[in-house]
Design brief:
Elements lengths: L16 H18 L9 H10 L17 H16 L3 H15 L4 H8 L3 H18 L7
Helix pairs in contact: 1-2, 1-3, 4-6, 5-6
Length: 144
């Protein structure tokens, strides 16, 4: 019995680089919200997740991004980030770290600048350099 297993195909045109990273951050947050350390305890993460599943009104927030990707797409984005971070020089890794902190972790430019001990303008430039590096690394990813 040879059953044909259909492997999903990744549609990289669905989002831009920023969109994929924001969605990956939302997926990470969703996965984190599902978890808890006690199986029967209703901790804040489970309450939040149950509200989402029940379709209740979510808290309004300017920075809230609803996850619209599945596990396969998130795994592909994670594999892409791992492959880029595993090679390359320090400057590329630093620029990617700035982009990840800004888009995946949903931090402001000022917060990333404070974390990385650089100016806001330099942080913005590093983030743009990381976008162009990702675009050059994988031509399927689009900037805008």
């Amino acid at each position: 019995m040879n059953a044909a297993v259909a492997t999903p195909v990744m549609d990289w045109t669905k989002y831009t680089i920023d969109g994929w990273l924001e969605q990956f951050g939302a997926w990470c947050e969703t996965v984190r919200m599902k978890g808890g350390d006690l199986p029967d305890g209703l901790h804040i993460n489970q309450i939040y997740w149950l509200m989402r599943e029940a379709g209740k009104e979510m808290p309004k927030s300017k920075s809230y991004i609803r996850c619209q990707i599945d596990d396969y797409e998130a795994d592909q984005v994670q594999a892409l980030l791992r492959s880029i971070l595993s090679k390359g020089d320090y400057t590329v890794k630093f620029a990617l770290m700035c982009l990840i902190k800004h888009k995946v972790e949903n931090r402001s430019l000022s917060a990333v600048a404070d974390i990385t001990n650089q100016s806001k303008q330099m942080t913005h430039m590093m983030i743009n350099c990381a976008r162009f590096h990702l675009n050059g690394y994988d031509k399927r990813l689009k900037i805008q």
